[in-house]
Amino acid sequence: MLWTKDTGILMVQPAVLLGLDLGASKVVAVVAVQEEGGLLNVTGASLAAPEGGIRQGEITDINLTVAAIMRAVEEAMRTAGQTRVDGIRVAVDGIQFKGENLRDSITIASANRVITTQDRDRVMEQATNGCKLAKEETVLHRIPQMFHIKGQRDIRNPVNMIGDTLEAEVRIIVAPGSVLENINRALHLSSLQGAELMYSPLASAEAVLSREDAENGAVVVDIGDQLTHLGVFLRGTLFHSAVIPIGGMHFTKDLEITKHLGGISRAERIKRVYGTALPGHVPAEEMVDLEEEGRQVSRRELAEVLHARAIELLNMVLAEIGRSGLIHEIHGGVHLVGGGALLPHLPILAQNILGRPRVVLGRVSGVQGLSHAIANPLYTNALGAVKALHRSMNETTTRAPRTGGILDKLKRWI
């Protein structure tokens, strides 16, 4: 809050929010300001390379990681013209992140049988405590899926309802304690105390899924540099998640190994400029000049290499959707995000492999501001983290009990 001498008016400063995405090839930072009316305005964004400090979601060199975080945050804050933040949320994932669906029930002990917040939390905690995976790893999220009471099923929020018993379906996301502790350590060393961690598929969904899509069944597929993460959503919540050990760098290495393009960096550039997931869209006679090598290579042959790897990845995505048991419930489409999703014609190939009529590049909604960040799949998870933080802060404010009128609040503040 600000008290201005000129006007004598008490003014409330807009909340400044910071979202981060810690990836193997990039650390992404975005700064957003909550404008009047609740609009979220993205005013700063930046990328920084961790230079090998992060591998498959795990910190392998904390000094390199901290340096990348600080570079990304400082540039995003400078662009936004901000020197403070009111909240920080960080999208994380990794090869050792796991998820499991749990179910448990309790008896409602109160005489009036009214279900309380404590009852809801107790049944979720009881389900988690009985899980072997939760005992071996650190629980990052405990996500309520659905509740049931005797005689009535599929309840979204049972609090204040009446029932003899309360049953909960819950999904937990876990990771090794050392992995999460070192991520938090890197954030602490970057002077980002109080940052909250968020599982990347949740951030992806927050960024690109409409409420209707999440309700009707949708899949987000985040194709990163080293890994692909996916989340299957139904009734507005996460029902299945998985990590696939294939990312955009595998496509690049396939090109270099099979076509000897002059190194990984050149292969990456050629992939971005000439790559496609559909060889049939490339004329058979089209060639790509390798000036450094003094020779040419068939662009269609390059596409065939990328096509083969894309088919492998998409078949693994299809298998995970099948494991969710919701393959016939996906009416909100498949949404591709991450840098690997930029491979031309990948959504068309995915339509055929996944048997889904709607496969799209995920587009961030619900924010305004820097178009080069909002429209770039590399920023999707960081933007989703900011959106989720913004929503949770608004929900907390809305639910806060009223403790007096505006005069009472002003007196307490003064």
From TrEMBL:
Cell division protein that is involved in the assembly of the Z ring. May serve as a membrane anchor for the Z ring. This is Cell division protein FtsA. GO terms for cellular component: cell division site; cytoplasmic side of plasma membrane. Belongs to the FtsA/MreB family. It comes from Mesoterricola sediminis. It comes from the Bacteria. It is found in: Cell membrane. It is a peripheral membrane protein. The keyword Chaperone does not apply. Self-interacts. Interacts with FtsZ. Residues 17-208 form the SHS2 domain. The gene is ftsA.
